[in-house]
Recover the amino acids of this structure.
């Protein structure tokens, strides 16, 4: 058995699992083996490789036959490499099947198979990304609840406890907005988990900051005469329930606070002086040319 594993395959007939190929890579699995070709998996990370015919002329024809499949294959490999290891092997088997179809002169079927596999791999990538995105967003609930509990346990006359509760509710509102976006497929999912973590952190931070800013605007009286039913939303008499509602709303509606700030900002005045046009400018130009 040890000698079989060390054997180097020099011909198509010698391509077997456990041997080494001509590149000195271990052959892990043989998908298809015919008289004139073999398709197998080798190396780390695993690669799907074709062993062409031992006859040079036939090998050249085989290479030319599957050359049009290579861009689709490379695209699929790129997507598959971003998937978890447990979901990659089925797509490698599909790549091997497409290469087999190409070698057997069924190029249209092979291209259709690879195109379908690319869409399936992208769908798997998106599902995994959405679950990871939601998982990272869920982690923001813990500090949000801690802020709400701290604010509820330590009431102060300055209203800082209400500010903490509002900021925590803003994080919960941002989480619900993210979950709703994932459900409706409106959240952009990245293949890189670090990009997803960064996006979640930014969205939750924006929700908390927006909640705190909206609470301060209402609690300080900067924005006046807003009621929720019979309960006032402005002024120092704001209750803790209203603070939670205000924070949650600001976190869930991402554009609420930016739009409110834009409306309350006075328009900038232009300081530029208009240049004279018309007959005055024409006369000035004529006087410079002389007569």
């Amino acid at each position: 058995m040890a000698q079989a594993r060390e054997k180097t395959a020099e011909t198509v007939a010698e391509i077997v699992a456990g041997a080494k190929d001509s590149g000195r890579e271990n052959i892990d699995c043989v998908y298809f083996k015919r008289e004139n070709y073999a398709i197998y998996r080798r190396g780390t990370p695993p690669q799907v490789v074709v062993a062409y015919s031992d006859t040079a002329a036939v090998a050249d024809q085989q290479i030319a036959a599957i050359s049009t499949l290579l861009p689709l294959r490379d695209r699929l490999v790129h997507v598959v490499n971003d998937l978890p290891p447990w979901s990659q092997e089925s797509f490698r088997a599909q790549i091997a099947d497409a290469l087999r179809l190409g070698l057997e002169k069924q190029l249209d079927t092979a291209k259709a198979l690879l195109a379908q596999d690319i869409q399936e791999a992208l769908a798997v990538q998106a599902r995994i990304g959405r679950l990871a995105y939601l998982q990272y967003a869920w982690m923001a609930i813990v500090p949000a609840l801690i802020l709400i509990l701290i604010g509820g346990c330590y009431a102060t006359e300055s209203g800082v406890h209400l500010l903490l509760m509002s900021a925590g509710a803003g994080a919960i509102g941002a989480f619900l907005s993210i979950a709703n976006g994932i459900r409706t497929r409106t959240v952009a999912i990245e293949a890189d988990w670090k990009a997803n973590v960064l996006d979640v952190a930014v969205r939750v931070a924006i929700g908390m900051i927006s909640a705190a800013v909206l609470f301060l605007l209402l609690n300080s009286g900067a924005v006046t005469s807003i009621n929720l039913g019979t309960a006032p939303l402005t002024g120092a008499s704001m209750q803790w329930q209203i603070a939670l509602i205000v924070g949650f709303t600001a976190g869930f509606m991402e554009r609420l606070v930016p739009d409110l700030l834009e409306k309350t900002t006075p328009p900038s005045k232009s300081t530029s002086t208009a240049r004279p046009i018309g007959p005055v400018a024409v006369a000035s130009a004529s006087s410079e040319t002389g007569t």
Observations:
- The chain has eleven helices and five strands.
- Residues 107-138 form the longest helix (32 residues).
- The chain has two domains: 2-130, 139-264.
